[in-house]
Amino acid sequence: MKQIGQKQEQENPRTNAIMGTFVMAVGCLPLLTGLGFIKIQGAVHAPLYVLTAVGTAFVMAGLMVLTQALGLPPRSIAARILGFLLICSFLTPFVWLAFFSGQPLMLRLAFGAPVVLFVLLYLVRFIPGVKVISVESSAASDLHSTFDAKKKKIARPSRKL
């Protein structure tokens, strides 16, 4: 099991490129259906923009994997824009279900509360003076070493036969 502070082994870029392309291809069906290029027989129980958002989420996820396989740094502006578009398109079906679907109140609360919490936690990053702990930060490694020290102090009872 990898520890937080340890470097991960480099993944195969070819495998990542294939996986990214596959995920993008999976997203093309709902995306093209939502845009009206593929006609659906029967009833659709959500607006077409929800299908478009689901397809866009898959396409953005595949693009992120593909761009990392091609060598784009994860903290670049393009990667951050792709990540923002991924989050927006991922949250769209939940926002529709929670606020616009007309479902019973408990179902709307069950889907709406996590969406609102996620958006608030995302927006906290932009408050001046608030630091977000990342895996690479020293605060995260300090937290991990503190946890390891506490874990070692706990004495486990030995079994006597």
Strand content: under 5%
Give the number of helices: 5
Average pLDDT level: 80
C-alpha-based Rg, rounded? 21 Å
Number of domains: 1
What does the overall shape look like?
A: extended
Largest sheet: none
State the low-pLDDT regions, or none. none
Please state the structural category: mainly alpha
How many β-strand stretches?
0
Run of helices and strands: HHHHH
Helix content: 55-70%
The first-to-last residue Cα distance is 31 Å
What does this structure look like?
- The two termini are about 30 Å apart.
- This protein has about 160 residues and is mainly alpha-helical.
- The chain is built from five helices and no strands.
- α1 runs antiparallel to α2 and α2 (about 50-70) runs antiparallel to α3.
- It has one domain.
- The model has no long low-confidence stretch (mean pLDDT about 80).
- The longest helix is centred in the middle third of the chain and has 24 residues, at about 75-100.
- About 65% of the residues lie in helices and about 0% in strands.
Topology:
Elements: H1 13-35, H2 48-69, H3 77-100, H4 105-124, H5 138-153
Helix pairs in contact: 1-2, 2-3, 3-4
Short summary:
The protein is mostly helical and 161 residues long.
Quickly list its features:
mainly alpha; extended; 161 residues; 5 helices
